[in-house]
Specification:
By secondary structure, the chain is α+β, with helices and mostly antiparallel strands. Helices cover 21% and strands 31% of the residues. The protein has a five-stranded mixed β-sheet. The two termini are 17 Å apart.
Length: 228
């Protein structure tokens, strides 16, 4: 539904290199986040209902929060599940924790329509920051927020050196939907393989020792993720 976490729309399969990757593909989810071409594939307007106020945003009590990192705030009607089990490898598990924070921070910024969110700026940099910020801007342009659930799972993490990591993971947006900020109307769609995106990302450790996502590309309609 949503697409990232992003409008369900997506584009090309892409391979990720730790350095020098040109960000050319767009990733999106079938019916929840804004599509890059101005449409939400497969989206259907839910039957008109009485407008309901957006639930008050509260700090997520389960967010993976690195020491000194800004607090992540998620709406009460948005659930972000990051299922990255511990591997027993200290380096990989540290990266997984930072990536968990980054994904939750992005969802918080996406729901709030705020690409300047402190948590988002803390964990996203390089080409990935304006790329994901553009997706946030699309949602703002539609006067929408998001509701439901987004799930991240099946990660692979490759530590290439002390400051660079390549990773992949799956995103399930089959239970996430866009919601009009004014009317509260939610757009729903029939679940399909288009709800599953396989992400290829690069992370770099900053001069302050913070792992940040600097490159991100997604393959929409991933059979592997749909079956994982």
């Amino acid at each position: 539904m949503r697409s990232t976490i992003i409008s369900r729309n997506a584009r090309r399969t892409a391979a990720l290199c730790c350095a020098g990757l040109a960000l050319t593909a767009a990733a999106a989810c079938s019916s929840s986040k804004p599509a890059t071409d101005g449409t939400i594939n497969g989206a259907q307007s839910a039957s008109p209902t009485t407008a309901t106020p957006t639930p008050t945003a509260t700090a997520s009590p389960t967010a993976s929060q690195p020491a000194g990192a800004p607090e992540i705030v998620l709406p009460a009607d948005l659930k972000v599940t990051v299922a990255f089990p511990a591997t027993g490898d200290a380096d990989k598990d540290s990266v997984a924790q930072s990536l968990t924070y980054a994904l939750r921070a992005y969802n918080g910024a996406f729901a709030a329509g705020d690409a300047q969110s402190p948590a988002f700026l803390y964990s996203w940099d390089g080409m990935a920051r304006p790329y994901m910020g553009n997706i946030i801007g699309q949602l703002v342009g539609r006067n929408q927020t998001i509701t439901g659930e987004t799930r991240y799972y099946a990660p692979t993490i490759t530590v290439t050196d002390a400051t660079h990591v390549a990773a992949t993971y799956c995103e399930d947006q089959s239970k996430g939907y866009p919601k009009d900020r004014t009317t509260g109307q939610v757009q729903t769609s029939t679940p399909s393989v288009r709800d599953f995106t396989e992400w290829n990302i690069g992370l770099e450790k900053s001069s302050k020792g913070i792992w940040q996502v600097t490159q991100a590309l997604g393959e929409k309609g991933s059979d592997r993720c749909a079956k994982a």
